[in-house]
Amino acid sequence: MVVDADPGRRLLLRRRGFVLEGITLAWNVVGVVVLAVASIAAGSVALAGFGLDSLIEIGASTVVIWELSGTGEHRQRLALKLIAGAFIALAAYLLVQSGLALAAGHRPLPSPWGVGWTAVTAAVMFALAAGKARTGKALGNPVLTAEGRVTFIDGLLATAVLLGVLLDDLAGWWWADPLAGLVIVYYAIREAVEIFRHH
Description:
By secondary structure, the chain is mainly alpha-helical. The protein has a single domain (7-198), classed as Alpha-lytic protease prodomain-like (Up-down Bundle). It is built from six helices and no strands. The protein has helices spanning 7-42, 45-68, 73-104, 112-139, 142-171, 176-198. Helix 2 (45-68) runs antiparallel to helix 5 (142-171) and helix 3 (73-104) packs antiparallel against helix 6 (176-198).
């Protein structure tokens, strides 16, 4: 990892990290409200799971803002553990809810709001994840880099949820909605394991 050693450049990168996290935080606060309404109206497990993911992303962004405001190895280790815990909580929730929906044969209603929000969110999260990855690498900050992976997984989840909801709406494949929730479980567990293994 090549870390930028210039103090002025590092200050600029730190500010960029704050801006990226601020945008992520604001987007997900709005997303929680939109997804809560859409998931209740449609009875969609995938949209409800994505709403929980937005809550976890809010927590992860808050952790990174807290970590960027100070320094120290202890603070970084604690922040990374909190992010890994968020991954595990997300995986556990999606595993249980998707499994129950599949077992019960739950059929959600169409959700135009859910489709629109997840489509835009996927693009926004992938862009933010790329920015966090570059900034975290240049700063040598493992917490910002790890949270960038949380944001990338948020983009993957948005894509999976979008696909699941569309397949249910357009093709009548009711099982695609809860199955979309299961797609991300593997990635969430893998990222949590990677954080614990390396830090």
